[in-house]
Amino acid sequence: MQIATGGTDMAAKKQYAVIGMGRFGSSVAKALSGMGFDVLAIDADEQRTQEISGIVTHAVSADSTDEEALRALGIRNFDVVVVAIGEDIQASILTTLILKDLGVPAILVKAKSELHGKVLSKIGADKVIYPERDMGMRVAHHLASPNILDYIELSPDYSILDMKVSGTMLGKNLQELNIRAKYGCNVMAIRRGEEMNISPRAEDRLIEGDVLVIVGRKDNLTKLEMAYQ
Fold first, then answer.
1. In angstroms, how far is CA 190 from the centroid of its own chain?
2. Phi and psi for 81 in degrees, rounded to 5?
3. How far apart are the C-alpha atoms of 139 and 174, rounded to whole Å?
């Protein structure tokens, strides 16, 4: 086990560990580090840990399926551990089991498939993440309706989307659009440039460049998307 240390000191604040420095794992580690959190990056490949070492708090080359190695790293002291292991499903499952046994407070795991995700949930993962599936959904919604800037699944039944205001929406207010009555969806916020109006009023009139943040059931959101293609 070899450790490469970055430039920041460990501080008394929320700490994260990310296991697996592939594209997804390294992206999560970099984002958390950029937000000012303490991040421990773990990967069996020493080259990957060296590449991330200058960005995160600590980078460690270790086998995450080795319980003693994780115990020696004090993994149970981290507030959240993200298991971002890519192709090796067996390693992903075994690592999650070990983390659960060691008493890690919160475990988030990347899944390759629905079946993989079900297994992870059954063995104790607090949250299962489907990055490939979720990205595929976002791309599909954008292709079907170019006005959809982002699409996030909240649960099997509900999602949230960012819709660019255009066409017949321009110049109207929320009361005139009547999205809730027509489609059963709620406008949570209006983004205008850098400003976010999180409590929009019925009389708020929409202009070019506005983005609506809308939440609702998936089938209702689909109807809304098709109506404003």
1. 22
2. -120, 125
3. 27
User: Residue 129: phi, psi to the nearest 5?
Assistant: -115, 135
Rounded Cα gap, residues 151 and 144, in angstroms: 12
- The tokens for 140 are 């599909």
Question: Which residue shows structure tokens 């709620």?
Answer: 186
How far from the centroid of its chain's Cα atoms is residue 164's Cα?
22
User: Using the 8-state DSSP alphabet, how is residue 204 labeled?
Assistant: P
Residue entry with tokens 């207010």: 173
Q: Residue 3 forms beta bridges with which residues?
A: 60
Q: Which two tokens stand for residue 18?
A: 């990310």
Contact 171, 177 (CB under 8 A): no
What are the C-alpha distances in Å from 80 to residues 24, 61, 102, 109, 111? 16, 19, 13, 11, 17
Q: What is the pLDDT along the chain (229 residues), one digit of tens a residue?
A: 444 444 444 334 789 999 999 989 999 999 999 888 999 999 999 999 999 999 999 999 999 999 999 999 999 999 999 999 978 999 999 999 999 999 999 999 999 888 999 999 999 999 998 888 777 777 777 776 788 888 888 888 899 999 999 889 999 999 999 999 999 999 999 999 989 999 899 999 999 999 999 999 999 998 998 888 7
Radius of gyration of the chain (CA): 21
